[in-house]
């Protein structure tokens, strides 16, 4: 079974490697939405795969590092595309949530990416 815990944060960014004149070369902000997916068997005694609170305990402090920040100032996010942000989140979360199966990053209402660790 797969669980999804969702987070939101606000952040500014600009993309340093876009062609001249590209809109994303200018500083701008997004209301990011992140989905943390975990997959595993249901523990029948507990009735759950993992307590949502256990996910929260790991992920919330990591999201707080991004909230109301300029993303390209954060080590590892010098080129803060959705793809690189999804990988950065995976790298910070996977060692502590072994059941992590995917990270989704919604940068706008219409643009998102999914990273499954490869
Ligand atoms: N593959 C990627 N392409 C783009 C990324 C990205 O992270 N990965 N990021 C951007 C910009 O950050 C931009 O702010 C978001 O892009 P876009 O979806 O084009 O935004 P719009 O609001 O202009 O899109 P609509 O089509 O109006 O919904 C660009 N590309
Ligand atoms: Zn953007």
From TrEMBL:
The keyword Transmembrane helix does not apply. GO terms for molecular function: 6-carboxytetrahydropterin synthase activity; metal ion binding. InterPro entries: 6-PTP_synth/QueD, 6-PTP_synth/QueD_sf. It catalyses: 7,8-dihydroneopterin 3'-triphosphate + H2O = 6-carboxy-5,6,7,8-tetrahydropterin + triphosphate + acetaldehyde + 2 H(+). Pfam families: PTPS (PF01242). Keywords: Lyase, Metal-binding, Queuosine biosynthesis, Zinc. PANTHER family: 6-PYRUVOYL TETRAHYDROBIOPTERIN SYNTHASE, PYRUVOYL TETRAHYDROBIOPTERIN SYNTHASE. This is 6-carboxy-5,6,7,8-tetrahydropterin synthase. It comes from Planomonospora sphaerica. The lineage of its organism: Bacteria, Bacillati, Actinomycetota, Actinomycetes, Streptosporangiales.
């Amino acid at each position: 079974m797969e669980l999804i815990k969702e987070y939101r944060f606000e952040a500014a960014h600009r993309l340093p490697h876009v062609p001249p004149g590209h809109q994303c070369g200018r500083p701008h902000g997004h209301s990011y939405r992140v989905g943390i997916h975990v997959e595993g068997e249901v523990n029948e005694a507990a009735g759950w795969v993992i307590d949502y609170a256990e996910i929260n305990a790991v992920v919330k402090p990591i999201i707080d590092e991004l909230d109301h920040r300029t993303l390209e100032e954060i080590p590892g996010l010098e080129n803060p595309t959705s793809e690189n942000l999804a990988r950065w989140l995976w790298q910070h979360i996977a060692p502590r949530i072994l059941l992590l199966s995917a990270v989704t990053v919604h940068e706008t209402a219409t643009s998102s990416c999914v990273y499954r660790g490869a």
